[in-house]
Structure prediction request, 239 residues.
Amino acid sequence: MTTELLFRNDAYLTSATATVAAVSERGIELDQTLFYPMGGGQVGDSGVLWNAGGERIEIIDTRKGETADRVVHVPAPGSPAIQVGAPVRMEIDWQRRHKLMRLHTALHLMSCVITAPVTGGNIVPDKARLDFDIELNLLNAEHITRETNALIARAVATETVWISDAELDAQPDLVKTMSVQPPRGAGRVRLLRIPGIDLQPCGGTHVANIAEIGGIRVLRIRSEGKHNKRVEIALTESG
Ligand SMILES: [Zn+2]
Prediction:
């Protein structure tokens, strides 16, 4: 069994119907979902499921299941029980998700401003960070804020591109232009292209146009170890 990941094709879908595929101590699995499971440094989505009787099941977190293509929706304690095979309507907390999408896409841009290997990252609704393998004194908050906002001001549309391992092998130049080496062996790889700015493998949720980010500011820069210099950012408009 796998969960169809609706957010992969359209990160802007906020509600849809589904059928309960499994229920366990960990939570509820559906045949398809809008909920992004925690991964790639991004927190899992929250939202609501409604059963056929209109009862509300609050979803407080979303995690990957036993395999990466299964998704477990974590209900709030004390939620109404739900049976396998039952139809549900789902709705994600869109305000929260859209902030995550804006911050996530902003990190793609920031990784083009700071040209050093990325060694970690995290995205929560009110802030996001990347760790770089770089000397601390090469990181300047004003410079990073200004240059990232200059990229945001280009207001280009993002593109999701699927490419097969064979196509990748046939285009070594494409890999060279990527800021992160794509994973091999899964058959195909999902890429995010920000035309003229960035191309890298990513399975996450992004804004359709980088103008939606609005603007960012660097909250702080600090050392988290020899290979981890951490740059933390926030959106300038939380709307
Ligand atoms: Zn991404």
